[in-house]
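Notebook p. 47: complex prediction with glutamine.
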Amino acid sequence: MTTSTRGASKVPAVLVLEDGRTFRGRAYGAVGVTFGEAVFNTGMSGYQETLTDPSYHRQVVVMTAPHVGNTGVNDEDPESGRIWVAGYVVRDPARIPSNWRSRRSLDEELVAQGVVGISGIDTRALTRHLRESGAMRVGIFSGDNLPDADTMLAEVRRAPEMKGADLAAEVATKEAYVVPAIGAKKFTVAAIDLGIKGMTPHRMAERGIEVHVLPATATAEDIYALDPDGVFFSNGPGDPATADHPVSVMRSVLERRTPLFGICFGNQILGRALGFGTYKLKYGHRGINQPVQDRTTGKVEVTAHNHGFAVDAPLDAATDTPYGRVEVSHVCLNDNVVEGLQLLDQPAFSVQYHPEAAAGPHDAAYLFDRFVKLMEGQRA
Ligand SMILES: NC(=O)CC[C@H](N)C(=O)O
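Predicted complex, structure tokens below:
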């Protein structure tokens, strides 16, 4: 069923960046005030998956695609139980969503979930500004009586920064749960939830893995109580430099040489566990068409990304670590950012991007098969 929107909002809204640049538009979604880190996403589709990806917690997402909401909102595509973005910025919202799966309009969904957005602004100009000046704090203010410009700017500058933010525990499950294997069960995996997307355990379940999703606070004892064939560290929001607990848990896993796979935040945690630093990218990678080379095969894949930080590891030589040698296995062809790590002396690897591909192309699905092979190898 398709429902129509209420039509374009007449309520004024203003977006204020921390450097003072201001864009005026109309309220989209809930009317109110919100703050976060302004980032842009270049995906032409998949807005439901973007909105519900817990890694976007505390980020205000600017869509570079000019039309957003065309296919409405369905009940199948969310990657978690709620919208996580702190705010949403679009150029031209669909007035009449049209899709056989649509249940309601995106505007209605944003209102229902209390997500403050803005529409009708020049998102290309805003994106170019973020590209030149870097991701920065932002506020969206909507309503008929807006504060004066100086007050709004002062409020934006008081908002917390993403650098130094420790957010995984705010989005992760509080209770462990199990995603059963689809078909015959072949393996048990303990998955540390730092903000996991729903498609990730699903991609494992499709391969005969029973996934035990554990809270971000899980310890090595919690993991090994399950006698797992493999351990997985998920994506998640915030600055990896703050993730001391998952880093120490991962080191215990590396010491035991259990097959290990990490995605996104999980890749940054592996980097840290091995002794590398992480750093904030100027404006990050967010979209569904980023070219990555798998240097273990030479193949180039088109991939889904959502990261604002990256691992600082040497690209061209293996590095000795307390857990054996490690190589940069994947690299982004746009900017040579480290996109994957592969241990050479034990069964552990990770990628900075999203092989679960929700949304995005399925080029990188082979990484789940690689994880299965590592677990098969341990049994052989
Ligand atoms: N999707 C993720 O796991 C993001 C990891 C981390 N919060 C970053 O922004 O780089």
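Notes: Residues 1-5 have pLDDT under 50 and may be disordered. The domain at 12-158 is CATH 3.50.30.20 (Glucose Oxidase; domain 1).
Next step: compare against the earlier run before touching the bench.
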